[in-house]
Design goal:
By secondary structure, the chain is α/β, with parallel strands linked by helices. The chain has one domain (about 5-230): P-loop containing nucleotide triphosphate hydrolases (Rossmann fold). Helix content is about 35%, strand content about 25%. The chain has ten helices and ten strands. The protein has helices at about 40-50, 70-75, 95-100, 110-120, 125, 140-150, 170-185, 195-200, 220-225, 225-230, and strands at about 5-10, 15-25, 30-35, 55-60, 65, 80, 155-160, 185-190, 205-210, 210-220. The strands form two sheets. The chain has a six-stranded mixed β-sheet, sandwiched between helices. It starts with a strand and ends with a helix.
Amino acid sequence: MLLEISDLVVAYGRIQALHGISLTVSEGEVVTLIGANGAGKSTTMRAISGLRPVSRGSIRFDGQDLTHVRADLRVVRGISQAPEGRGIFPGMTVMENLEMGTYARRDRGNFRADLDRVFGLFPRLQERRTQVAGTMSGGEQQMLTIGRALMARPRLLLLDEPSMGLAPKLIQQIFSIIREINTQGTTVLLVEQNAQQALSVADRAYILETGSIVKEGTGRELLGDPAIKEAYLGVA
């Protein structure tokens, strides 16, 4: 098991955001977390990447306990996140942003190969490599966010709301690229409000409601579940 979360509790002051959730991600999978705003999806991602302290429970990655390991050391171990809201460095160029993705890597000898991989997935970034990132469109910035995360050469890529604010045509493109990233060998944990697209790309999925996992299954099973259709897909 690549990632194993057991009985995870995360609180903001006295308010519990996660109520003892447990989930797993096997190597080579795409797993998605579906839920409404405030369900605890992004909190789960921040806990995995080390940006949010854990009140109780454990996070294990490739057999090692990471529950209280610093965020930068989790990147070294092989976890990289493309955060919600993109979080690029707006005053830096595309190339400088991509170079920042390698900061925690101990081996930088394959920088060119990794750059070629990112440019292969996102040709637009190669075209705009000298452009200041803050002047790019929202879709281009999302590509840069994912590309920067890939430059860390992660074994597990955390994608937090990659389709947020994008036009429908671009959303389809982003999910096609997520499939390709996974085909290339990177395991993906995806948080996404666009349930239709997320379940279509996912091997397995978990449904989060108010900090608790209420249902799990394959992407195909949940796409066909009447309750899921009504709650998240807009189908009565």
